[in-house]
Amino acid sequence: MNGIYYYLIAFVIIWILALTLKNKLSNYGFEISFPIIMWKTERLRGFISRISNRSPKFWRWYMNVGIVVSFIAMIFITWTLLSSLETALETPSVSLVIPGVDMPGLSIYVPFLAGLIALATVLIVHEFSHGIQAVGEKIPIKSIGLLLVAILPGAFVEPDEDELKKASKISRLRVYGAGSMANMTLALIAILIVFGASYGIPHFFAEDGIQIGHIVADSPSDGVLKEGMVIESIDNHKINDSQSYLNLVGTFKPGDNITVGTDQGDYSVCLGKNPNNESVGFFGIQASKHFKLADNSLGPVPWVLFSLVELFQWIFTLNLGIGLFNLLPIKPLDGGHMLEILLTYKLSEAQAKPIVNAISVILAMVVVFSLVVGFI
After folding, report:
1. Given phi > 0 = left and psi -120 to 50 = alpha, else beta, which region is 366?
2. Residue 130, exposed/middle/buried by CB under 10 A (0-12, 13-18, 19+)?
3. What does the pLDDT look like over 57-68, one tens digit per residue?
4. Architecture of the domain spanning 205-302
5. β-pair type (257-262, 265-270)
6. Hey, is 240 helix, strand or coil?
7. For residues 134 and 139, what is the distance between their CA atoms, to the nearest angstrom?
8. Where are the domain boundaries for CATH 2.30.42.10 in the chain?
9. In a designed cystine with 336, which of 157, 282, 331, 369 is the match (CB 3.0 to 4.6 A)?
10. Is pLDDT at 1 greater than 60 in this prediction?
11. Burial 235-247 (b: 16+ CB within 10 A, else e)
12. How many CB atoms lie under 10 A from the CB of residue 87?
């Protein structure tokens, strides 16, 4: 069963319990009104204030740089989204990210545990950074919490809206840009850790074939091959490493019947059409390098490097991707608010709002189009 059904079952149970226990839960900070469940607390406000007050000058200059970086990133992600329309029917540029689920239009599979941890880092650093910057700009935080919009989870830091509106334009830009800037900063830290951990892998391991990490649901390999198998040959061509695998798989066509030799036996697979290129055969597997210890006396400790690399790869990918997406000039995303504030330096608020609203509608339509195309 596709992982999406487990999520749907879990959310149905959550909503039944929430609506049944609505009155009792309200005593613990829950606000439940379909399609939104919101939990608020004031407990972490002191923690955020202590972080902000520890080095207020650093946070202010960090976000002075962050404003520039955010607008550059806004231009980049907007251009990327619009230019993707040319190939939207083949490779949609936008997709939902749900750990453990094969999502239409998404060419990569996000593993369940690493994906959940990575998503948690996205939410935590994003919202806490908004709060830290708000405190630094003398804007009080009313509450912090978690929310569920139908089946989409999220988190929030709720500043005092009246005080936020009264703040200077540069202060508001710092507050709105803080979340995505924190995501991009964490992405940079994560990729540096990945490079560091990856540097150690060749010192402890030798490449030894290709291992199946994930099988796409309803693909030609589904029900034939299994996750964890090590591919040793394809149609009698020896697979020694990742390069020999990549050189070979691109030569097959849809409809080809191929024999996959694995460490668990030989299996026949009839290839389908690749969703991203219908002229290329599609296995429906996502594989990675398989390694063996160069020195068995080292014990199991070096294998931790692979888990570390995988985790921080997803921390990098999701923080960068979601951080950039949030900078699209679409209200209510942070990028939409930032663009509106920027325009008010030259235009009145009455003139800036319709411009941003129009841009928001156009880009939102592009996003929805990409999502729908991916599912179709």
Report:
1. alpha
2. buried
3. 999 999 999 999
4. Roll (2.30)
5. antiparallel
6. coil
7. 5
8. 205-302
9. 331
10. no
11. eeeebeeeebbee
12. 11
DSSP run (H or E) holding 134: helix 112-136
Alpha-carbon separation of residue 294 from 208, 244, 281 (angstroms):
11, 21, 35
Q: Percent of the chain beyond pLDDT 90?
A: 38
Tokens encoding 48 = 């955020």
Could you tell me the two tokens for 14?
Answer: 């959550």
**Which residue has 């149970």 as its token pair?**
13
Are the beta carbons of 209 and 240 closer than 8 angstroms? Answer: yes
Rounded to 10 degrees, the C-alpha dihedral 56/61/63/67 comes to: 150
CA-to-CA distance for 216 and 375, rounded, in angstroms?
Answer: 15
* pLDDT mean over 354-358: 96
How many beta carbons lie within 10 A of that of residue 27, not counting itself? Answer: 7
d(Cα 78, Cα 67) in Å, to the nearest integer? 16
Burial 95-127 (b: 16+ CB within 10 A, else e): bebbbbbbbebbeebbbeebbebbbebbbebbb
Amino acid sitting at position 131: G
DSSP state of 224: T
Residue type (1 letter), 147 = L
* Cis previous bond, 35, omega within 30: yes
Asked if 163 and 186 touch (Cβ cutoff 8 Å), the reply is no
Half-sphere exposure of 184 (CA within 13 A, CB side): 22
Residue carrying structure tokens 């939104």:
36
